[in-house]
């Protein structure tokens, strides 16, 4: 799976969690909490959705990697290929 495909999946999952926001225009380095007004429960739900979508374990210690689209994409790209 390419990084572009992973990024697209992340944006789709954000759209499911917070349908009132448009994540497609968010810069990869922007904090999702600030850019889209997501709260900690939204981030938790995003991680849970990505866990299901990619069928991989995402440890609690990796949660900070899911605060930006860029870091989430990089983390998933490294781990999806391993599984």
Automatic annotation (TrEMBL):
Q: Which Pfam families match?
A: PP-binding
Where, by residue number, does the polypeptide cross the bilayer?
Answer: none
Carrier domain ranges (all copies): 5-80
- Name this protein carries in UniProt: Carrier domain-containing protein
């Amino acid at each position: 799976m390419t990084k572009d495909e992973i990024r697209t999946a992340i944006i789709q999952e954000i759209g499911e969690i917070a349908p009132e926001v448009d994540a497609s225009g968010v810069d990869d380095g922007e904090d999702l909490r600030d850019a889209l007004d997501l709260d900690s429960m939204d981030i938790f739900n995003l991680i849970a959705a990505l866990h299901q979508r990619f069928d991989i374990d995402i440890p609690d210690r990796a949660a900070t990697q899911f605060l930006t689209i860029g870091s989430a994409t990089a983390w998933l790209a490294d781990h999806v290929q391993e599984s």
